[in-house]
Amino acid sequence: MNTNLAMLPLLFLLLASPAAALVQDFCVADLKSSDTPAGYPCKSVTSVTVEDFAFAGLGAPGNTTNIIKAAVTPAFVGQFPGFNGLGLSMARLDLALGGVIPLHTHPAASEVLFVAQGTICAGFISSGANKVYLKSLNRGEIMVFPQGLLHFQFNSGKGPALGFVAFSSHNPGLQITDFALFANDLPSEVVEKVTFLDDAQVKKLKGVLGGSG
């Protein structure tokens, strides 16, 4: 598969993404400073090079030897400073057979998924009515996930799957529902009350995901 050709539709999506107007040509992130709601402070123009506008990190497969059989390789502002202030970021999704990106949300961005290899079943859940929008996507197809809504992806094919996602923010944020409930020290009795799960189920999930309490 020619991954470069597969990426072309996603690149056009990125170019069409709206971003806040800049008062200068660019603002490469100074990662030595702190991030703010408006982004990182700008790196001195005199120290900016072409390497600040190129990123090779999405070219290599991620390690899918883990509990979810999947890997996410980010190209957010922390990895790619050239995205700073442009309202853009990307990531690579590698999903082994049976791999899943668990139910999660990006509080600060909408997302577009482009399937480059295999078959990925993807969906999101609306607020209010909790309506599920679910679709199986094949190579070359895309799906959009509105900002802040719970969504997921999993490999529904017979071999490995590869996807690339684009976000409408240089730092989209991430909260994985399972980790938020079971991978911390939230007391088991509280989790039981808010999820309607029994004690054995909660403790099992906490054990699997490294939680306590």
Automatic annotation (TrEMBL):
CDD domains: cupin_OxOx (cd02241). Residues 56-203 form the Cupin type-1 domain. This is Germin-like protein. Pfam families: Cupin_1. Residues 1-21 form the signal peptide. Disulfide bonds join C27-C42. Mn(2+) binds at H104, H106, E111, H151. GO terms for molecular function: manganese ion binding. It is found in: Secreted, Extracellular space, Apoplast. The keyword Transcription does not apply. GO terms for cellular component: apoplast. PANTHER family: GERMIN-LIKE PROTEIN SUBFAMILY 3 MEMBER 3. Its main location: secreted. Belongs to the germin family. Keywords: Apoplast, Disulfide bond, Glycoprotein, Manganese, Metal-binding, Receptor, Secreted, Signal. It comes from Linum tenue. Oxalate binds at H106, E111. InterPro entries: Cupin_1 (IPR006045), Germin (IPR001929), Germin_Mn-BS (IPR019780), RmlC-like_jellyroll (IPR014710), RmlC_Cupin_sf (IPR011051).
